[in-house]
Amino acid sequence: MKSFKKILIANRGEIAVRIIRACRELGIKTVAIYSDIEKDSMHVRLADEAVCIGPAVSAQSYLNIPGILSAAEITDSEAIHPGYGFLAENPHFAEACATSGITFIGPSSENMRLGGDKAKARQIMKRKGIPVVPGSDGPVTSEEMLLKTAKKTGFPVILKASAGGGGKGMRIVHEEGTLEQAFHLAQREALAAFGNSELYIEKYIPVMRHIEVQIMADSKGNIIHLGERDCSVQRRHQKLIEEAPSPFATEKFRKKIGELAVKAARAMKYRNVGTIEFIVEPDGSIYFMEINTRVQVEHPVTEAVTGIDIIKEQIKLATGLPLEYKQGSIKPSGHSIECRINAEDPERFIPSPGKITFFYQPSGPGVRVDTAAYSGWVVPSQYDSLIAKLIVHGRTRQEAIMKMKSALDGFLIEGIKTTIPFHRKVLNHQDFVSGDITTGFIEKMGNGGAGNNKGQATSE
Amino acid sequence: MELEDLRELISLLKDTDITELQIEKDGTKVKIRRQTLLSPIEVQTKIPVSPEKAMEETGEEMQRLMTITSPIVGTFYRSPSPEAPPFVENGARVKKGEVLCIIEAMKLMNEIESEVEGIVMRNLVENGQPVEYGEPLFLIEPA
After folding, report:
1. What ipTM score was computed for the predicted complex, to two decimals?
2. Are B37 and A49 in contact (CB < 8 Å)?
């Protein structure tokens, strides 16, 4: 059970800064990697050492496995934290680290392979008695199976890519007539986006809540959950606002979904930190959707309500230490909300890269900002548009909402467009305030008209 | 102050824990500061008595010279093996495509070739030194 002396962070932006902070608190030295356009970025400034590994394009820099491993080698880094995105769920990378004698901070490559094969994951969960969204048993392998499964499931159905994610490679089919054509098109899209044309079918549930559970496991097989998060405020399957606990959850529901998550994690012999995503219907039916084999963007809301530093725990678990917490000691307290602030037009969500001429972040009790941005920083166009996460924690949901509104008003970012005005709109919307949010919320809000802050219910 | 002197000062800095060095000699003031990044040490030179002439020379010289930079992360070696002589000595003439050095990455030896025909003026990194992407390795005078 050695502790690491030096960790290389194979990522950039706010999560790289986050990981550097956790390492510092543990007394571990940090190595940043960067592409040649990110020399002035915050994670490079804050790390103890930094290595330029390639040009701007991700494939040659943040996804450059040989370059990253070489950087770890020349800096004598004992472990690599992959953050989220990039190589975080790449089993080849995890294995390459192991081959080089470097500890990969995260789950095993088998966990990742299963997590990345959504059709298979569903199958395994189903066999272990975990409810999954009705649909195909494994991938769709023939047109005959396609039709049979769709009919059995009942229209509308959604075709999803086994190797997919991020809302891509999904197609909703409303009736039998368009099924075959949709299938072929979805296969082509999946092949183009993920290099794998395999698809599976699920019943399409248009109005549902996206509730996920944070899990943590040590190398001995002890697994606990840290409570649920509600991520129903989404636009095109991209999360925008997350909160913990879910306004939908009762104590009974929380216990049930927490136990299902631990059961799912156990079914795949999960190690380290991860999240089980569920679809929850208005009547409270819970279905396993997928497992995310990484630390997630929205982990701070769980940290706020539990007081546990998830990144530090990840690092400790990776050294082989046993879980420090027992399920009984996990008692979420208060309410936390996170807004993802993107460098995008707040109405059309078109990316808005460029120089931030003025940056002043909110603060105060229960207000946290995770960011790598600063005054004078140029937001690059080559990477994703998330520039800051604003997280608040209040004793009640109402207090958290007030804090978020106040914090949004106190967040000054000039020179680029950001989604702050959008978040203000959501926080003022009647349905959000009442906790009545489903994944259809954003569209509904849009149809209600910009500036309709009182949120009259519109017909779907 | 010759460029050779600057080189010597830079390696002096690298071999010690000194983070900043300021020297005044023959009317030239030089300040060299080490950054925390694994990148070349920053050099600031104050121009001596006849500024235009000095600027001209340095400017011209730098424009003439081609910098060969590292395309990968790894460890720089001047010779194919520890006992062997360097691939190229300073002052040697090289052809385009000729191997200048090896950068070892993940136990693989990557040969770095000259992009031009010319004379190797100087090496900018020492044997066994770790290098990053874009790190200047050699100055070559195309000829």
Report:
1. 0.80
2. yes
